[in-house]
Amino acid sequence: MSRGGGSGLSVPDPIKLTLSYNLSFFLRFSNEPFKSEKMQADVGNVQRSFDSVEKTLPGFTWNFLRGFMERFGLKDSVDIEEMSLRLSALDNEIPMYSSIVPHSHDLEKYAAELKLVLSRIPSEIPGRNEFIDLIKQIAGAIKNLLDCIHSILNALQQGVIRQDLDGHMINFVDYSKRFSSALKGFFRDHKTNELYASANMLVQQTNLILLFIRNTR
């Protein structure tokens, strides 16, 4: 599973595992070598397609899987917000690209770290001490990302790019405050719905920042 830093699988685990399982199932009962080779090639193309789209549209796989669950009625049997949050760090491989935006690689790294710690909320929330420690890690990850954005803004000249990035930062700060409010609500009523939803919105805003940076060349 890719956890950022440029290592790990290039295709998110759920998709790769599903494709591999269906391919192995087909090959088990196929006696036609040509079809088998073509199927293997098609699966490879699908994997590369997801990888390629993710590099241009960060969060695509996350949105795809979330939409898939909603489209096929899985929200009746699965907590969509929780599942989305657990999946949010699966697309964290940091792509290599050139950008006119300074410190873009640092921003990629801090964004991946933030999405990773946010994705751990459902796993850590049952243990109070572990969850409190995770909250501190999330706060640190948010600060690191904001500090990096400030460094980028300070390095950019006045213009459209700086103005647009500043707008993204303002939205990110707003969603960070909403997440903080949701945390306070959780400690009052111990309900996870609002907390998971606000964490997912913070993930989405992080992906929008990455989208802006990756497409500013």
UniProtKB/TrEMBL annotation:
Alphabetical GO biological process terms: regulation of Golgi organization
Gene Ontology cellular component list: FAR/SIN/STRIPAK complex
Gene3D superfamilies: 1.20.120.1950
InterPro entries: PDCD10, PDCD10_Homolog
Molecular function via GO: protein kinase binding
Domain of life of the native organism: Eukaryota
The name this protein goes by in its record: Programmed cell death protein 10
